Amino acid sequence: MSDRSLVEATLNLPCSVVILSARADNSQGGMTASAMFVSQMPPLIAVSLSKTSRTYEIIEKSGEFAINVIADNQLDLAKKFGGAHGHELDKFKEFDVATEPASKIGGSLLSGCFANIECRVISSVRDLQGNHAVCIGEVLSFKMNEGLRPLVWLKNRYFRVGTECRL
Ligand SMILES: Cc1cc2nc3c(=O)[nH]c(=O)nc-3n(C[C@H](O)[C@H](O)[C@H](O)COP(=O)(O)O)c2cc1C
To answer: Within 10 A of 27 (CB to CB), how many other CB atoms are there?
Structure first.
C-alpha cells in the first residue's frame, strides 16, 4: 500500500473543528485544529500540534490554552486561522477577530463560538515520530451556547452536525 493511501486512511476519521488560542508574555497565537476527549474524571482533552507552529511555541511557554469550538457560521475563521502562520502576523489583529477575556487563563477567547474551554497543560509529549507533539489539557472552565452548532472535519471538508441518529 502506498504512503499516500495510508494518509488517506486518516482522513476518514471525523474530527472536531476548533481554534486553539494562547498567550505568553505579549504574544498571542491561534490556529485551527482538532481536539479529542480523553477523560471525564478528571476532565482532560488532547490536542496535536505541529512543532513548527507558532501556537505550539506559545502553548509550550504559557502552559495553557483555550479550545474555541467554532460554530457553523464561523467557517471563515477556521480558514483564516488554518491558512496563515502566526510567525508572520498576529491573526487576531489581521483578521479583526472578536474576542473576550478568558476567566482562568491568560489570553483571549473567541467570541460567538459554540463552546469555549479553558485548559492547563498537564502533559506534553514531544518525542513522537513525525513533526507533531501532543498536549493534554485539564479543563479549568468552560461555557457553551446551546443555540449554535459545531462543525466536523471529514475527508478534507467541513460539515455541519446533522440530525441525531437513534435506533
Ligand atoms: C480543519 C483543520 C484542522 C487542522 N488541525 C490541525 C491540528 O490538529 N494540528 C496542527 O498542528 N495543525 C492543524 N491544522 C493546520 C494549522 O491550523 C495551520 O498549520 C496553522 O497555520 C498553524 O498556525 P500557527 O503557526 O500560527 O500556529 C489544521 C488546519 C485545518 C484547516
So the answer is: 15
